[in-house]
């Protein structure tokens, strides 16, 4: 029982981290119907940014956060303007192909620049552990999970309670109608990309204290983030959150109770089951 | 073309006699092995549009099967590789059956996840060497039955032979009905189903062939490398590599994947050496850049780039497509037979959530009639068509086609099956296959009922071609059989869509707004075609807003409003009906 509880709590915490990485992927997928295969690569780059912010500017992850998030936002807008804008109306094959190329490009650029070494930081503030429901959880992970909740809440407020947020939703639901109403859909898409990559950057920033970075770190997250988005379903921010937490829980519980080497096997098995039985996701009512 | 390919192949075959550079031969062997897998991927992802990111599984199954059979049972890899191919094909069919229901991104994601699951399984399965992998027994070196040599040329010839097989298979696919059907499915699966093309059957065929071919490449790869483990043969990067080769070279073409495999493998081998001085990973940075550039500027890949270069050097501007005028047929005898009904729809109900789109529609079409369905927007006309043709499952009621003495219940059957019973339809928004030529569009419309699986490896029969020519002449498109359907004008596309439904000589044709949005001249021609076909024995059920056209054409009209048949009768009566006028014009 204690083992189960510990697995659940740790699974929940990791699930929130997955949810944070998936948030931006789900946002772009929902807004533009584009699947960004390179999404987790931006998280990897943000981890390097946090690493060097510590080395060069002596900033801890809290101090580096605004800088890293801003860089993420700029990278997202830049990616949209340079690449994505040209493939908005293209076929699905072209879109998948383009973001796959982006994945290659970013990953091996990091490889060329930073080399294959693993790098991590020590963050004295987050070095210990805290107790959640009687289960010890590393402070760094708890901070990352909190960052996920705060980011979700912030984005939710933005989309629901600001005029720009509403305009973004309008552009997502019906770009032609939005255009007719005077909403600059192109700018909304750019904004969505900025927000998407900024959230990935926040994830990378808080991941680094307990997860070492290397150019291929995104591999471990690629499928998990897809699974989170599909599992949760589209149409609301809640989708990737529920999906991410579900995956964290499956991974944590299956990994502890069955076998740690097979934990991802069960994650993907559940993912496929949902895909076959309920392609709109756990929460999804209508599929786009 | 075939001669050229044969000469090229012969040239490649004698190359090791001239070039002895082991580094170069190694590069070529990898080009052939990866090229085989890229061609295999091309069958499914290129022609059929099902993007697989899991082909490493089939590569791995081939590699492990032949290797384990050799080690544990002493089976020669020359046989073992076929066992691996069979196993991979079987596995692909088991996986493909549920996965092919998924559309768009979901298929790609499902294959990605399946491949990861297989990799995790192999990493933890002691019998297959788990994470450590398997060494081939080096004691068998240089015994031909063991498919093992310590020189390059034998591997070169074996890999080249396999690559030749792969290219030949794709070339055959490209030129026969299989390629045509797969491309039609890729472009618009629903429209393909409406023509009676059994999409899942052909997707499974493509997937089985693709998996088997990939497994053969995996077996040869294992024999060449002499060591396999999950991270060499089952790694997701393999799946990506095969996909990228085919996509970069040009998916859905015969030479594209071969070009892509050659370009990427040799670039990696040689640029890896040169760029290695600059630092690590630069070759992959270039890959990424190349992939993005191709995606944005030339989605057809290297083949497209070559085609553009070729066209720029040779040709002037393209000729616009023109339609020849068609003589209008006289008002021939009409074959309406008042006694026998062909289609009976009874008490048809369709609910979408809380909305009742159809509330008990009863309607019948008699043999040889032209029946019109009229009604305001939202009356349920298109939903009625979707129910009859299987694109929507009715919530209640019956639909029976009385064909050739036997009654067939249509409600709830798949669109392709219904189409094969002799029903043809057009769509409100035209759905021709924009990337296929006019001729290919027509050939896609041939009879699919009872078409044996192996017949798809042949060209379309001569009778079909002759009929297609006749029909093209009829609608005035005979001058441009090679024009892409997407480049035709709107009116021409409507004419093509009508002609496509007629290729297989259907019993009943359902037309959804055939004259909407076209010029008066084209309306006249469409009307003449419908009359002429009707005189030749085809029964029509037509949805149309243009009340004048329906009045001229139809024997009887049904007036639908709010999901119900309001009234039914000869056009003149309907036109005079106060109820209809008030519903339609708000009078």
Molecular structure report:
By secondary structure, chain A is mainly α. Chain A contains eleven helices and two strands. A two-stranded antiparallel sheet of chain A has the order 1-2. In chain A, β1 (129-132) and β2 form a beta hairpin. In chain A, α9 runs parallel beside α11. The longest helix of chain A has 31 residues, at 2-32. Chain A is globular and about 55 Å long. In chain A, 50% of the residues are buried. The model of chain A has no long low-confidence stretch (mean pLDDT 87). Chain B has 587 residues and is of the alpha/beta class. Helix content of chain B is 55%, strand content 12%. Chain B is built from 23 helices and twelve strands. In chain B, strands 8-9-10-5-11-12 form a six-stranded mixed β-sheet, sandwiched between helices. A four-stranded antiparallel β-sheet of chain B has the order 4-3-6-7, covered by helices on one side. In chain B, β6 and β7 (406-409) form a beta hairpin. Residues 326-335 of chain B have low confidence and may be disordered. The interface between A and B is large, with 46 and 45 residues.
Q: What is the chain-wise order of helices and strands of chain A?
A: HHHHEEHHHHHHH
Are there runs of chain A of 5+ residues with pLDDT below 50, and where? none
Distinct helical segment count of chain B: 23
- How helical, in percent, are the residues of chain A? over 70%
Helices and strands in order:
The complex is a heterodimer of chains A (288) and B (587).
Chain A: H1 2-32, H2 39-57, H3 61-82, H4 92-114, E1 129-132, E2 135-138, H5 139-161, H6 163-173, H7 175-180, H8 185-207, H9 219-232, H10 238-257, H11 263-277
Antiparallel strand pairs in A: 1-2
Chain B: H1 2-18, H2 22-47, H3 56-73, H4 77-99, H5 105-123, E1 134-135, H6 152-175, H7 177-187, H8 189-194, H9 199-225, E2 227-228, H10 230-233, H11 236-249, H12 256-275, H13 282-297, H14 302-314, E3 341-352, E4 355-366, E5 370-374, H15 381-389, E6 396-403, E7 406-409, H16 415-420, E8 423-425, H17 438-444, H18 462-475, H19 490-502, E9 508-512, H20 520-535, E10 539-543, H21 547-553, E11 556-561, E12 564-569, H22 571-576, H23 578-585
Parallel strand pairs in B: 5-10, 5-11, 8-9, 9-10
Antiparallel strand pairs in B: 1-2, 3-4, 3-6, 6-7, 11-12
Helix pairs in contact in B: 1-6, 2-6, 2-9, 2-11, 2-12, 3-4, 3-9, 4-9, 6-7, 6-9, 7-9, 7-17, 11-12, 12-13, 17-19, 18-19
């Amino acid at each position: 029982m204690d083992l189960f509880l510990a697995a659940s709590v740790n699974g929940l915490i990791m699930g929130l981290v997955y949810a944070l990485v998936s948030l931006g992927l789900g946002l772009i997928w929902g807004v533009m119907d584009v699947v960004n295969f390179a999404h987790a690569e931006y998280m990897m780059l943000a981890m390097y940014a946090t690493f060097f912010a510590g080395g060069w500017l002596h900033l801890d992850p809290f101090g580096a956060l605004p800088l890293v998030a801003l860089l993420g936002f700029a990278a997202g807008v830049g990616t949209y303007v340079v690449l994505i804008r040209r493939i908005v109306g293209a076929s699905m094959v072209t879109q998948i192909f383009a973001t796959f190329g982006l994945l290659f490009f970013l990953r091996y650029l990091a490889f060329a620049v930073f080399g294959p070494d693993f790098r991590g930081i020590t963050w004295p503030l987050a070095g210990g552990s805290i107790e959640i429901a009687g289960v010890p959880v590393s402070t760094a992970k708890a901070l990352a999970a909190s960052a996920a909740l705060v980011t979700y809440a912030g984005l939710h407020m933005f989309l629901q309670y600001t005029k720009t947020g509403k305009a973004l939703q309008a552009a997502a639901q019906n770009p032609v109608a939005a255009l007719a109403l005077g909403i600059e859909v192109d700018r909304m898409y750019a904004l969505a990309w900025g927000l998407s990559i900024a959230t990935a950057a926040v994830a990378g920033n808080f991941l680094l204290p307990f997860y070492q970075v290397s150019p291929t770190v995104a591999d471990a997250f690629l499928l998990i983030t897809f699974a989170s988005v599909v599992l949760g379903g589209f149409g609301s921010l809640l989708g990737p959150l529920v999906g991410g937490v579900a995956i964290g829980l499956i991974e944590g519980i299956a990994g502890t109770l069955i076998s740690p080497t097979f934990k991802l096997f069960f994650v993907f098995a559940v993912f496929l089951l949902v895909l076959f039985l309920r392609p709109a996701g756990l929460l999804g009512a209508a599929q786009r | 073309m075939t001669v050229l390919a044969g000469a090229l192949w012969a040239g490649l075959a004698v190359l090791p006699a001239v070039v002895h550079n082991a580094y170069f031969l190694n590069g070529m062997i990898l080009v052939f092995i990866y090229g085989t897998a890229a061609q295999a991927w091309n069958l499914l992802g290129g022609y059929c549009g099902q993007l697989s990111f899991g082909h490493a599984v089939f590569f791995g199954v081939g590699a492990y099967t032949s290797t384990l059979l050799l080690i544990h049972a002493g089976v020669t890899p020359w046989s073992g590789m076929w066992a691996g191919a069979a196993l991979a094909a079987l596995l692909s069919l088991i996986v493909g059956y549920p996965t092919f229901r998924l559309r768009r991104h979901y298929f790609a994601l499902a294959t990605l996840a399946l491949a990861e699951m297989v990799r995790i399984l192999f990493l933890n399965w002691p019998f297959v060497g788990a994470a450590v992998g398997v060494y081939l027994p080096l004691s068998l070196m240089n015994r031909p039955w063991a498919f093992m040599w310590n020189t390059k040329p034998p591997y070169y010839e074996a890999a080249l032979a396999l690559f030749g097989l792969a290219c030949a298979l794709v070339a055959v696919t490209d030129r026969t009905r299989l390629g045509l059907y797969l491309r039609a499915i890729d472009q618009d699966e629903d429209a393909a189903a409406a023509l009676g093309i059994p999409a899942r059957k052909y997707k499974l065929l493509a997937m089985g062939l693709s998996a088997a071919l990939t497994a053969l490449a995996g077996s040869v790869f294992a024999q060449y490398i002499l060591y396999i483990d999950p991270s060499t043969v089952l790694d997701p990067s393999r799946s990506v590599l095969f996909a990228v080769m085919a996509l970069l070279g040009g998916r859905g073409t015969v030479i594209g994947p071969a070009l892509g495999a050659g370009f990427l493998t040799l670039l990696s081998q040689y640029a890896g050496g040169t760029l290695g001085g600059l630092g690590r990973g630069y070759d992959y940075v270039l890959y990424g850049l190349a992939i993005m550039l191709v995606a944005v500027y030339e989605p057809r890949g290297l083949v497209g780039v070559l085609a553009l270069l070729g066209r720029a050097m040779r040709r002037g501007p393209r000729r616009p497509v023109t339609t020849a005028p068609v003589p209008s047929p006289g008002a021939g005898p009409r074959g309406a037979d008042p006694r026998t009904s062909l289609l009976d729809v009874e008490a048809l109900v369709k609910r979408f959530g809380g909305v009742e789109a159809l509330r008990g529609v009863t309607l019948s079409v008699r043999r040889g009639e032209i029946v019109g369905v009229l009604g305001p927007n939202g009356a349920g006309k298109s939903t009625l068509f979707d129910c009859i043709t299987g694109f929507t499952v009715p919530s209640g009621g019956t639909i029976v086609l009385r064909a050739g003495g036997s009654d067939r219940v249509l409600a709830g059957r798949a669109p392709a099956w219904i189409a094969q019973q002799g029903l043809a339809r057009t769509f409100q928004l035209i759905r021709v296959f924009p990337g296929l030529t006019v001729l290919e569009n027509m050939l896609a419309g041939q009879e699919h009922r009872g078409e044996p699986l192996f017949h798809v490896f042949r060209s379309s029969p001569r009778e079909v071609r002759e009929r297609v020519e006749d029909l093209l002449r009829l609608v005035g498109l005979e001058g441009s059989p090679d024009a892409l359907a997407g480049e035709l004008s709107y009116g021409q596309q409507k004419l093509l869509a009508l002609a496509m439904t007629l290729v297989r000589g259907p019993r009943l044709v359902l037309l959804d707004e055939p004259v909407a949005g076209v010029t008066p001249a084209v309306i006249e021609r469409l009307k003449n075609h419908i009359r002429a076909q009707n005189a030749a024995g085809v029964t029509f059920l037509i949805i149309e807003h243009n009340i004048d056209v329906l009045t001229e054409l139809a024997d009887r009209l049904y007036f639908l409003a709010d999901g119900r048949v309001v009234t039914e009768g000869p056009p003149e009566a309907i036109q005079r009906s106060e109820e209809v006028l008030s519903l339609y014009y708000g009078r």
